[in-house]
Amino acid sequence: MNIEEIRAIARGSKVYDLGVELFPGMPHIPLHGPFGYSMIREHGDFMYPEGACAAVDMFFCTGHTGTHVDAFGHISKDMKLHGGVDAASHQTKTGGIVGLGIETVAPIVRRGVLLDAAAHLKKDVLEPARPVTREELQAVASAQGTRIEAGDVVLVRTGHIRHWPKKDFYHQKGGVPGVHIEAARWLADQGIFMLGGDNFAVEVVPAPSLPVHCHMLVEKGIHLLEVGFFEELSRDRAYEFLLVALPLKIRGGTGSPTRPVAIV
Fold this sequence. Notes:
Layout: H1 3-12, E1 15-17, E2 36-41, E3 56-60, E4 68-70, E5 91-92, E6 96-97, E7 108-116, H2 117-120, E8 131-132, H3 134-144, E9 153-157, E10 178-179, H4 181-189, E11 194-197, H5 211-220, E12 223-226, H6 231-236, E13 240-245, E14 255-257, E15 261-263
Parallel strand pairs: 7-9, 8-10, 9-11, 11-12
Antiparallel strand pairs: 1-15, 2-3, 4-12, 4-14, 5-6, 7-13, 13-15
Helix pairs in contact: 3-4, 4-5
C-alpha cells in the first residue's frame, strides 16, 4: 500500500469511538475498586525558565474499569485457567497472572461486526435479565445480511449502555440483558476472536456461575470486551467495520481499560 492509498483511506473513513470516559465517581463493579484521579502537580507548582510550567496527574483503577478487555487470566474454572493452567501456582499479588496476563494480547486489529439485537427486537433497551438467545442472534445476522467469520470480533448490542453513567448501571433491579450461554457457544463455534457487550458482563445477569465467561475465557480462549458503546454504530446501521483495540501491556494483568474504535 502506497502513501496515497493510505491517505485516501484516512480521508474517506469514519471512526466510531466505542469507549466510555473514565472519571472519579464513575460506576464500578462493587467487588472492584473505584476509579481514582489526582492532579499531583498543578500549573504554577514549579516554573521552568521563561514562564514554562507543566501539570501532571495520576490515576488508578482496576483492569476492569469502564470499557475494557478481559485477559485469559481473569477467570478460572475449578481453579484451572485457559489451557488447563493451574491458577494457584500461576498467580501472585505483585506479579499477577503468569503467562496469561493482558500483556500477552497483541494489538487487536480485526474485522468487527455488530449484531444489533435491541434494534432487531424493536427495543431501545432490552428488559432486565433478558437473555439474547442463539436463535435471536442468528436471526439478527440474517436480517442484517451480516456474516460471521473466523477471527472476527462480534459486538452484541442490548442497549444497556444507555443507562451509563447512572449509579445503578451495575445494579439494575431484576438483572441486566446479555448474551445467553447457548448464543455464546454458537459464536464460539464460528471461531471468533473476541465477543463484546454493551453491559458489564457480556452475558445476561444474574449469572452466578459466570457460564459465558467460563466458556469463552477458560474453555475456548476467546476474549471478552465489556462496557462498549455501540449506540452510534446502531444509529448508522454500521454492521461491519475494522475494529481496533489496544489493551495496555500490564504484565500479569487480568484485564485492561481500552478505547476501541470502529473504522468504516
